[in-house]
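As promised in the previous annual report, we have extended the structural survey to additional targets. Below is the entry for Uroporphyrinogen-III C-methyltransferase.
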Amino acid sequence: MKVGKVFLVGAGPGDPKLITVKGIEAIQKADVIVYDRLAHPSLLKYGRRDAEKIYVGKSPNRHTLQQEEINQLLVQLALEGKLVTRLKGGDPTIFGRVGEEALLLAEHGISFEIVPGITSAIAVPAYAGIPVTHRDFTSSIAIVTGHEDPTKNESNINWEKLATATGTLIFLMGVSNLKLIRDKLIENGRDSSTPVALVRMGTRVEQKTVTGTLENIVQVVEETKLTSPAIIIIGEVVKLREQLAWFEKKPLFGKRVLVTRARNQASELSALIEELGGETVEFPVIKIVPPKHTKEYQQAFQQLDQYDWIMFTSVNGVQSFFQTLKEQRIDIRKMAKARIAAIGPKTAALLEEKGLIVDVLPQEFRAEGLLDALTGELKVGQKVLLPRADIARKILPDQLKEKGLEVVEINAYETVIDAENKDEIIKMLKEKQIQIITFTSSSTVKNFYEALQGESLEKLLKGVTLASIGPITTDTAQQLGLNIDITASEYTIPGLVKAISKSK
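The corresponding structure token record, generated without further manual editing, is:
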């Protein structure tokens, strides 16, 4: 059997966007992903759907696998011919024990690569507004483990030299030994008034920073009940935090937001939330699937030259419409007679990308707004094509028919429930790890409600802010007993994010 290969990858300090391009590539091609607790779980989405995922996370008081077992696991998987990506928090060469893993792989003749990551020793202070060097304060740093092997008879740290050797000292994994670190540094000449900061869960939504001096930092940590994982920064550069703290000032800092859009549409909403400092968890309760090509569906496209109007009510409808044109080899020029209406700016923008100029675009982005915008434009007897979702509201076709128009509705796409990570989301809600839930359509509300049947929604959603893209979605939620806290006044994704940001 052909021997596999192992990529030893640094995942960065926590913010999933801080992983390297090469790190993502290693995840994408892996047969098996072996990951620990400090690697952000969202990074697993880059893996193949058929990739095996093995959690080997460790915490100060609990080890899923001992390091020696992890080393052997990597060897075993590679000898089975698999391409393995070992995903470790931060940079694997800085107290990540990558040397032990790599040595055992080398002893067995297994090919491996070490993919560096952004170390938490530098990134976490930066997210707390503390550059680890500054020409006015210091040009030297030392990175030290705060959690040496407890089985060793004596320390490898030369405290006498370390205490005053560099302007900035960074201790990783040192919260439980903070008093010892403080005492050793002061005993060996570090001024007790030296500024100190501890940053817990740096670069993540849970980031928490406390500051003090060597003299009082132990008391500060006890009073604030700050726990691991945290980084200790000691030095004059800590003073810069007061002016340079940027991450914690973002409008959505500290908020983890559940995004319920379809998987292929979630990126826009997620990107806007993350830009404002929030962290997103995707729960794509909707899956967009192609329509059933019935005889009526095919006939509607064959008669494109007969329509006076083609009205698009969503981006999905536009995408499906043009996919059908391509599949059936229908020339877009066949619809030259038709005027084009779109329900919102995103839909209109996509139509214009396809080369169609939109004739009517409402100011209120829903069916009622489109009907208002069409006042004076419609004539009795005109023929209208409506390519829409299978579950779309009936107000638009019904009102058009009342005005004497002939309306042909086709299911341009179908929506089905998709809640494959339901258990993970329920667990996060129970542990109060989600602060905001977004709904971008009535179908996201209905599918969310259906996916969580069997759970006590009142208990799960207690303290969680529910945000809706507009009044129709809000009405649907309220009919199901869900209390919407925020309803966007502009019924778009940017409008929804703006409303959430303002309400904070």
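The longest helix spans residues 67-79. The chain has a mean pLDDT of 90. These points will be discussed at the next consortium meeting with the crystallography subgroup.
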